[in-house]
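sanity check this record:

:::
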Amino acid sequence: MRVDNNNLERVEEFKCPGTTLTNQNYIAEEIKSRLKSGNACYLSVQYLLYSRLLSKNLNIKIYRTTILAVVLYGFETWSLTLREERKLSVFRTWC
């Protein structure tokens, strides 16, 4: 493809900051990667979430601002199948 006298290469997938886009809009690998990152984030703040010093509301805020933000960054571009929605739901329940 040519745009403004520049040739653009056609690729199968493109990694941009925070997400990987594919020409088939295949999002399963991206979700798998996000869930892995979310799991790592959960494990890093787990001691805070189980602390009796913090209120339940504060724990929910920590979950939403750290873990959920990592997992769902860029989700506006995702077209999910029912299977992928279930994976996200299972992760949410697990947390």
Q: What stands out?
A: The mean pLDDT is 83. The chain has one domain: 27-94. The CA atoms of residues 44 and 92 lie 16 Å apart. The helical segments are 28-49, 56-72, 82-94.
